Amino acid sequence: MTQNYPSLPDFDELMRLAKVDPERLNDLQRQINEQCVSQASHQRSAWKLQKLIMQISKIKKSYQHPLLVCDQLYVLLLDVILLERDAQASNLVGKSAGSLVCAKSNVISIQ
Length: 111
Hints:
Blueprint: H1 11-20, H2 22-38, H3 43-62, H4 66-93, E1 98-101, E2 107-110
Antiparallel strand pairs: 1-2
Helix pairs in contact: 1-2, 2-3, 3-4
């Protein structure tokens, strides 16, 4: 199965949209998000993508300073990557993931 990922305008065009027409940039982001979710290979993957998109939106609305948003998004995405890596490793070994410590120093129980 071949994945057709949405194409993005070049960086300069994205910067121009951010400055001149942020609503159009948000519309573009929504379209790309919807396309990625609809092309997910499994229903669970689509659900995970939707959950991640909602978490990202919540962070972007919660913080006004761009560096704080960037920091919080970094922590969130690091958590996601570490959890996925640990879940895949446990599947290879044939064990459940159990409790994992994530980047925020929270303990997450995975079933």
